[in-house]
Amino acid sequence: RENADMLDSRLLDILACPLCKGPVVFRREAAVLVCRADRLAFPVVDDVPVMLEAEARVLNSDDPLLDR
Fold it and tell me: Are 22 and 37 in contact (CB under 8 A)?
């Protein structure tokens, strides 16, 4: 199964950005959790969200992952 299938909706409901404590959005195609406020993409590795600032990728303001 893909990472997209493994993340439980209940887990997604409680996850928050570790920096701003705001909501994150799961982007299946990229297997990342995106914080729009901080423009960060947190990876999902082996079906586990890695919510560490050091592991996050900074997104450009025009990155398609930030689209609603």
Answer: yes
